[in-house]
Prior knowledge:
- By secondary structure, this protein is mainly beta.
- The protein has three helices and 26 strands.
- It is globular and about 65 Å long.
- It starts with a helix and ends in a 16-residue tail after the last helix.
Amino acid sequence: MRIPVLVCALLLCVVxxxxxxxxxxxxxxxxxxxxxxxxxxxxxxxxxxxxxxLYAAWVQRWYSGGYHYEILFSKSTDGGQVWSxxxxxQQISASLGAGVYNLGIFxxxxxxxxxxxxxxxxxxWPEEIDGNVEIIMVMSTDGGTSWIHSDxxxxxxxxxxxxTANNPVIIADNNxxxxxxxxxxxxxxxxxxxxxxxxxxxxxWSxxxxxKYISFPDGNPGSMPAIxxxxxxxxxxxxxxxxxxAGWTIHYGVSTDGxxxxxxxSADSVISSVYAGTIEYPxxxxxxxxxxxxxxxxxxxxxxxxxxxxxxxxxxxxxxxxTGYDFYTPDIxxxxxxxxxxxxxxxxxxTDDRQIYASYSLDxxxxxxxxxxxxxxxxxxxSDRAYIPDIVVTDGDTLHVVYLxxxxxxxxxxQEVGYSRSDTLATEGGGEPGCDYTIGDVNGSNTYNGLDxxxxxxxxxxxTAPTFECDCPPHGVWFVSGDVNGSCSYNGLDxxxxxxxxxxxxxxxxxxxxxxxN
Length: 518
């Protein structure tokens, strides 16, 4: 069932909300192959491709003369109905004798996955190389069928360092540059947030030649970073940091120049209250350059930190007060309407079953739904648990979550990767913004032809801008008619796509969030 946003806004005024069920609440849907008892999966991550493809990666543990850890992959090309990983394991990490850096379930988010506008897939994780733990990357240019660097470890961190790297996250920006960050210990004993970038589709990385840290080096340990990119290509980074032993806070940095510099390099920017408990795994989602939203776990509670004025002021409140079982890994996402979804992994009320729930905010994080929405199945069995959710939003505001779950016959081992889907906050019509234009028409002729290619080349060399702009949430105001590759941006890749089209290539496709009304 789809709920119109206007109705949702009215429901926010009452004590609790009722939402459409998630598919996983009726029963687990596995996207991995069954792992025998005493073996396990950890550290799920998910991403969506430019045409709505869904991709997931995780850590797999095997026992063969000792425990061994590798990275596995699963994909769906039909919106989550069928996943490749259910029929057979697909390992994408190199089997070189050194397993993936492992901290068990408490290692939480140790893998991450990103996809660019050309459907290139990137997966990162920490792994030991010659006694040091580095950040390793593999990539696929064919939708996950084959993987580059799956035969040998390919570090994107500086192997000249002896410090341990962990908790990597990765993202593709609107120009298909790839950005990775992680926390890494220093020789002084503290930890900083490190950064590496690729501007050539993953072929080379800036972080391999020297360490670059983007957190202010004040001696306080920073860890568990997260990153998001907005429609203006600004990079937003958050992490947790212990402030001189006085408590834990969320720190923030932004790059407005594609990762060359970050505001957090020169000074601390503390955006949260000081929490007495240990903060776990802050996550960030952005709606626009001004709307930035963060959740984190603080002992039994899930906390929220957000801004709607570009960071001039930050709102702190609590999403959910726990029932006595510590949260570890909440997550957050934002829809095309600016609605927020926070995921919680917590004991089910009145039971000792740890499941995943969703809480919603329809007013930019100021208030959150009192009644949480079950995302996963709770069958009453004390061994049926779910952990470490990762959420993805696809066109039409469809929500997709992957997570770890116990196989029904297991008592305390996480042996499957589960999947749940919902159209809870989707709007009728897929978010039609009412942009009246002809795709590809940047010179105002009402047609798309070779003259538009010439006009675009001239524009990118400093010439006259396209004749039409449209406000397309959450991407903002931009030249929608110039986007012919469906990337929700207008850049040189659209010129290349157009040239190929006129030579017999693929048909132009608009940004799914703002298709033309004509």
